[in-house]
Each structure stands twice: as C-alpha cells, then as structure tokens.
Design brief:
alpha/beta, TIM Barrel, 16 helices
C-alpha cells in the first residue's frame, strides 16, 4: 500500500438516508435495473489523465497539486502512480480505467525510449489488473500536448509527423490489446486548423481518413476484438476541429468507408461546446447505430471552455441514459469520468468524493431513465405524434413524386391544421421521474 489514501475506507452503498461523507447513496452495483446489474449497465471507468496525471494547472496558473509521484519524469514515479491508481479503483469499486500513453509513462524525448517505457508500464499495469480484476475500458494516444503535434497528427503538413503519429498509435494499440482493452479511442486534439490561409483542408481530411483506415486494418491484423472509437470535439484547442460533433464525425466515417468499423465516444462537455446537449449527441449516435462509449462530465455554463467538472445534474444525466438504454445500452463501451477536481481541491479524499458523487448522480439518472422507459410515457407520446405516418397512403407518399402529391392536395382539398407539440407537458412528465 502506498499510504496515499491512509485512513480512508473503501466506499460502500449505504442508501439515500446515509449521512456519511464518503459512501454511495444511489449507486448499488448489484441492484437490478431492467434485468441487468447496475454495475453492468454503467460500466464506470476512472480517467488516468485528470485523476492522476493532471497537476492542477489552468490557462492562468501552474501546478497546485503536490502528489508523491511528482514530477512525473521517471519509471519509479510512474509505477507509484499506478500503485495509487489501483488503490483508488479498489476503494471506489470501479470496474474499469482509461489512459493516454503520456499519462502512464514519463516523457523520454525520443520515440524509441517512450515506446520502451510504455511497454514496461503496460506489463506493470497488466499484473495489477490481473490481481485486482479492474480492466482497461480503453486506451488512446496523446497526440496534442507535445510541441511536435502543434500542427496536427494525421493531418500534419509534415509527412514525418504523420509517420510518428502512426508509430505512436501502433504502440498504444499494442498496449491496449495487451491489457485486454474493450475499446481503442482516437481523439484528434490538434486535427483541425488555426487559419485556412495555410491549410489544405481537403488533403488533411483525406490523410485523416487514410490514417483511420490504417488503424482499422491494424486492429484486424493483431486480432483486437475491441471497438475503435473516435471522439468529437469542437474548436478547442484549434479554431476549427474536423471532428466537430457526432453528425460531423458520422459523415466523415461514411465518406471514408469506416461506418461499419468505427463508433463514437461522446463527451458531455464537448457536446456543450458544440452548442448541443449531451442528450442530442447521444440520440444522433443511437439513431445511426454508432454509439460506442461516453465520457461523463459537465462544463461550467458561465465559462466558454472545457472545464471538465464532475457531473452533478441528475435530470441531464437521466436524459442521456434514457437514449442509451433506448438504444440497447452499452456493449463494449461504458461511462468514463473525463472529469477533474477543481485546482483548490487538494486532498486525497477530494479525489474519491468527486467520483463518488458523480457515480451517485449517474445511478440516479440511470434509474430515472429506466423508470421512464418502463412507464412508456414518452414512447406513447411519440407514437401518437407520428401515428399519421402509419397509414398506407402516408407510406406511399414516400415513394411518390412532387407532381402526384400536388394533385392529391388539390383533389382532396388538404389544409393541414397544426397540432400541439406538448413540450411543457412532456417536460412535466420527465420531472416526475427525476
């Protein structure tokens, strides 16, 4: 034991009336919801980067956290960080974790040395995974922090950077495969542009599409059975990112013949930056059969950037899980907390409390979503609103033409009368559950 969480017991489910500071009031992993254990529905994961690698900086100030594994510059401290990570997973009772390569191994300056340390820490994490039963939900490559990525990775105008990105992803896919990862994620943190004055947009998109096809080819070559995921995000840090939102990514995947191979990892905070709700992004992905996994967090609605706070709104979360459950729930995906403490929350207990509160919010949202689905009120309202399309003549219209439809309107004297969308009544219905 590292001693980092000394004096803090493992969290347990104590029910909604508990007055303990550190427990679960709503997350009961063994509670059965819609025929499945709550743990198996939610598939919680801890994000290595925010929980363990982030040092507490923001755009206006540097490090505030002083952890025993700082500075993160050698393998001894990388292994200590892994030791603390698995202690944290055990205390929280989470089944999964997620990582970037730069989170788990120190930056060594050269690709060869970074690959060596990645392989070493992968073996170390693999031993700890076997001992604990905590598994890798997904791995990914950090191709946005180092200066080499300042003009993109697969979209970089320098072919040497494209090659370096390919080598980096191969190493991370190998590590994810070795750890038994359920998915592999690509988030194009710099795949975009600052100005079109120096950007060949068409070429960059073609290179990005070819790169992702290489990733899929390699997945099959090594027998990786997990899902390849891409993660939409608008603007930040680039002025325009090619993976702007769910609809943009789906269009991109179809253009490059990847819609049968790649799904989406959607984040609450990124949805907000794109001007959408999380519910919207999930509904788009579910409608297209392309929902893979989610990063659960929230943004500060008074800030215009990605603040990555732990979720605390059960109504928002309930609507997200409503669409996830309606789409059949997760398969290889899960709920990863891409969320970080506030930079003033310095204590180890804060790290556990942030996750515990978020897990309870998700549990409350899941139960509310399941109750709404089982009651069927929203589905009945949808059926009623679209009932006219069930008539044979309405279905026939879809195979008709403009001239025929004009003739029908003239012959039958059709003058449609608007009907209420019932939005307020439906919002009141949702509020009964959340």
């Amino acid at each position: 034991m590292t001693g980092f969480f000394d004096g803090i017991d493992a969290l347990r489910y104590e029910g909604p009336d508990s007055d303990s500071e550190l427990c679960y009031r709503h997350y009961n992993p063994d509670e059965v919801v819609m025929g499945k254990r709550m743990e198996d529905h939610l598939r919680f994961a801890v994000a290595w980067w925010h929980s363990l690698a982030w040092e507490g900086g923001d755009p206006f100030g540097g490090q505030t956290f002083e952890r025993p594994w700082h500075p993160q510059d050698d393998m001894g401290r990388a292994k200590l960080k892994a030791d603390v990570a698995f202690e944290m997973f055990e205390k929280l009772g989470v089944p999964f974790y997620c990582w970037h390569d730069a989170d788990i191994r120190p930056e060594q300056g050269s690709y060869r040395d970074n690959l060596r340390t990645l392989e070493e820490i992968t073996d170390y994490m693999g031993e700890k995974s076997e001992g604990s039963g905590v598994r890798c939900l997904w791995g990914t490559a950090n191709m946005f922090s180092h200066r080499r990525w300042m003009s993109g990775a697969s979209t970089n105008p320098d072919p040497d950077v494209f090659a370096y990105a390919a080598a980096t992803v191969k190493g991370c896919m190998d590590a994810t495969h070795k750890l038994g990862g359920a998915n592999y994620v690509l988030w194009g943190g710099r795949e975009g542009y600052e100005t079109l004055l120096n950007t060949d947009l068409g070429q960059e998109l073609d290179h990005m599409g070819r790169f992702l096809n290489m990733v899929v080819d390699y997945k099959h070559k090594i027998g990786f059975e997990g899902t390849i995921l891409v993660e939409p995000k608008p603007q930040e840090p680039s002025k325009h990112q090619y993976d702007y939102d769910a609809a943009t990514c789906i269009g991109f995947l179809r253009k490059y013949g990847l819609e049968g191979e790649v799904k989406l990892n959607l984040e609450q905070g990124h949805a907000i930056l794109a001007g959408h709700s999380f519910e919207h992004e999930i509904a788009v992905a579910v409608a297209e059969g392309m929902l893979g996994s989610i990063d659960m967090n929230r943004n500060d609605y008074q800030s215009g950037w990605d603040t990555d706070q732990f979720p605390n709104s059960a109504p928002e979360v309930a609507l997200a899980y409503y669409h996830i459950l309606k789409g059949g729930g997760f398969t290889t995906g899960g709920t990863n907390f891409d969320a970080k403490l506030r930079r003033q929350s310095l204590d180890p207990i804060d790290l556990l409390a942030g996750h515990a509160g978020a897990m309870d919010v998700c549990a409350r949202g899941l139960k509310a979503a399941a109750a709404m689905l089982e009651d069927g009120g929203l589905e009945r309202a949808l059926e009623e609103r679209y009932a006219g399309w069930q008539r044979p003549e309405a279905q026939g219209m879809l195979a008709s033409d403009l001239a025929s439809l004009q003739t029908r309107v003239l012959d039958e004297g059709i003058e449609p009368q608007p009907r209420s969308g019932r939005q307020e009544r439906l919002e009141n219905y949702v509020n009964r559950f959340v």
